[in-house]
Amino acid sequence: MSRIQQPLITKDVFQFLENLKKNNSREWFAEHKTEFKELEAGVKGFYTALMNKLKAHDDIEKLKMFRIYRDIRFSKDKTPYKTHFAGSFSRAGQRLRGGYYLRLKPNETFIATGFWEPNKEDLFRIRKEFETDASEIRAIMDKKSFKEIWGEMQGDELKTAPSGFDKDHPNIDLIKRKQFIFVKNFSDKEVMSPNFLTNVDLAFQEIRPYFDLMSDILTTNLNGESLLD
User: Fold this and answer.
1) Among 96, 95, 72, residue whose Cα is nearest residue 82
2) What is the pLDDT of residue 4?
3) Could you tell me the strand order of the sheet in which 109-115 lies?
4) Domains of the chain as residue ranges with CATH
5) What is the pLDDT of residues 87-118, one digit of tens each?
6) Is residue 182 within a helix (H) or strand (E), and if so which, with residue range?
7) What is the pLDDT, as a whole number, of residue 229?
């Protein structure tokens, strides 16, 4: 039985994006619209294949592919097109928090996951949890296989303790965070490898204990009682 070939991100995709970067105009894009549509279809196929892999180990609600067109109304940069492809995968239901993101760009491809902009209530709840006990989150982040893939937590943070929290608290490094995200970069060679789809999926599988813990935190109070109906 022949092995089913996984969708690939080809050199043509990155070459088109490089050319677009050099010729970021409506006139050039119009002349190459057919080529773009063909490449876009292949890229969407890759994202769809990744979504199907994610669904094997997580409850994914939807895939959102971002448009190539830039909103330039309030930007000083008036170039009309993005020079990358990107898409996000939303987890389903009230109980599941977090999401997955993949951006494809020559020399700047990365995956990201976690919590970009927690609302005020969620941010406070996370901080209170870490004020009480951060042993579980540290155990997840200190796991060797996790560190090898994701490294350290990234994202914006306050310069000092948020209001109501002790600046000398032993978990202040976590408490003062405003974002709780992880990022992994890929070289162009890695992106065009036949193993890229599998490697991205494995990285996202490794983040699952983090999502499980954060989802539990955000759906319970400090006494562990559910906040869901």
Assistant:
1) 72
2) 56
3) 60-65, 85-91, 99-104, 109-115, 180-186
4) 11-218 (3.30.930)
5) 999 998 778 888 999 999 999 999 999 999 89
6) strand 180-186
7) 65
Q: Which of 104, 115, 88 is nearest to 207 (CA)?
A: 115
- How many degrees, rounded to 5, is the angle at CA 164 between CA 159 and CA 168? 55
Instruction: Report the pLDDT value the prediction gives residue 73, as an integer from 0 to 100.
Output: 83
C-alpha–C-alpha distance, residues 212 and 201, integer Å: 17
| Residue-level pLDDT at 5 | 64
* Cβ pair 154, 179 in contact under 8 A: yes
**pLDDT less than 70: residues of the chain:** 1-5, 229
Long-range contacts (CB closer than 8 Å, 24 or more residues apart) made by 64-72: 64/88, 64/89, 64/90, 68/36, 68/40
Amino acid letter, 225? E
Distances (CA, A) of 157 to 116, 127, 144: 12, 12, 25
- 3-class SS of residue 100: strand
pLDDT at 225: 80
Backbone angles phi, psi at 115, to 5 degrees: -130, 105
Instruction: Label the pairing between strands 99-104 and 60-65.
Output: unpaired
